[in-house]
Amino acid sequence: MTAPNVLFLAIDSLRADAVFEPAPPTPNIDRYATGGAAFRHCVSTTTSTTPSFSSMLTGCYPPKHGVRGLQGYRLASSLTTMAEAFAAGGYNTHAEVTGPLLPQTGVLRGFADANHRQGYKVPFFEWRDSVTDRMHSYVNPWFMLLHIWEVHRPYRAPPDFTKRWDKAGYHAAVAATDEWLQPIYDACGDNTIVVITGDHGEDYPDTPLQQKLIRLARKSRKTLKLKRWIPALDQKFQSLAVGHGFALHEHLVRVPLIIAGPGISPVVVDEQVRHVDLFPTLCDLCGLDTPSGIDGRSLRPLMENGSLAEEPAYMEAVGVKLEGNRIVGARTRDWKLLRAGASKPALYKLNGGGSPNEKRNLYSRYPEVAQPLESFIAQVEESTIVTEDAPLSVEDEATIEQHLRDLGYL
Ligand SMILES: [Zn+2]
Questions:
Q1: Domain boundary at 308, 324, 356, which?
Q2: Looking at the domain assignment, is residue 330 inside a domain?
Q3: Is 177 in contact with 186 (CB distance < 8 Å)?
Q4: Do 302 and 215 share a structural domain?
Q5: How far, in Å, is the centroid of ligand 1 from the Cα of 371?
Q6: Nearest by Cα to 315 from 300, 297, 299, 295
Q7: Is the pLDDT of residue 356 over 70?
Q8: Are residues 101 and 127 in the same domain?
Q9: Gap from CA of 228 to ligand 1 centroid (Å)
Q10: What are 58-109's pLDDT values in tens digits?
Q11: CB 18 within 8 A of CB 26
Q12: 267: domain CATH number?
């Protein structure tokens, strides 16, 4: 058999439950999930776009790849990227990305051909058709990263495409995106491994009324300068923030991971897997050399009904640039430990992910669970690779900042 092509489809802000629960309907994605390996407990490394892609594309956690926020960081030049590994294996590499994934961040390193779409400015259908046309001219074997912005908030879905921020708006955006991607799937052909995931999850209010209250809280924090005058209330209002990037709740870190294609038998995997595992898995499936010293491992044994000993997942919430207020965490299928600055850590029982309790802090009650997770976090944090990268130039910083402004992050 000739080497398979690879489509790596990352739908921004796609939660696991949006794919694995009946609502919203996602028949196209479901077809890949039932025809290939469906990882129901995949954990994203961070809840912000650029750091998350950096982990997926290098198989490394942020202390190693160096992208600790949306702004002010560039991918460590010493690491091999997924595109570089595929190019070295004889693949033609293409990227069609959007949002904050600018070339200045270093995440597109290794792609022979990379196009960046300004998500809110270039209409989906026109762009999709030009991407589909380009796919028809790809030379085999090809590897393609496709980053979709249509599920990112504010949600703009049919029939009227007005901005929405609530659950119904999110579901409508997911369902519409699944349908709109049909021509892309059709362009893949049979000899293509299709990977589908979200770069992180999403938090949304259930109703438009809840959204109004959240907006009011945000406005009060700003205009009344609550942080200065009533810090306790400010903190309470801050915890109402929705979207993604500032926390590591289950719906923010649980993403779908589907790998389907030639030679991959249908299997549902309930073990916890991590975004850092994707790169070595694809190397394994496509016969490429896996870079040494990375944090992930091949999931192929789980795809072939074998087993792997559980390894914790390291996680970070970094916001746009949290300036030292980073939240770090470690997760297994049953437990999640979170640490934010100097405050007391939190330990939550996840009960296999099915009915997680993220309200009750069990840190003091289960030191024997907390301690190994804390050691694991410390070990990851110490794994920083010292590189001699030059800092981002003033021009590159300015370009990234302007894009973040356009996207509404700043
Ligand atoms: Zn994202």
A1: 308
A2: no
A3: no
A4: no
A5: 31
A6: 295
A7: yes
A8: yes
A9: 31
A10: 999 999 999 988 888 899 999 999 999 999 999 999 999 999 999 999 999 9
A11: yes
A12: 3.40.720.10
What domain count does the chain have?
A: 2
pLDDT score of 359 = 92
Closest CA to 350 of 367, 365, 332: 332
Confidence of residue 390 (pLDDT cuts 50, 70, 90): low
Nearest Cα neighbor of 49 from 197, 219, 161, 186 is 197
Ligand 1 centroid–CA 305 distance in Å is 31
Q: Please give the helix or strand (H or E) that residue 49 lies within, else none.
A: helix 49-58
Distance, CA 49 to ligand 1 centroid (Å)?
3
CA 68 to chain centre: 14
Cα 212 to chain centroid distance, Å, stands at: 27
* Assigned domain for 159 exists: yes
How many whole angstroms from 14 Cα to the centroid of ligand 1? 9
9: its two tokens: 């489809």
- Give the per-residue pLDDT at 222: 77
Assign 394 to helix, strand or coil.
helix
Q: How far apart are CA 43 and CA 257, in angstroms?
A: 9
By the 10 Å C-beta count (0-12 exposed, 13-18 middle, 19+ buried), 363 is classed as: middle
84 and 47 belong to one structural domain: yes
Name the DSSP letter for residue 245.
S
Of these ranges, 164-168, 228-232, 389-393, the one predicted with the greatest mean pLDDT is 164-168
Residue 110 Cα to ligand 1 midpoint, Å, equals 21
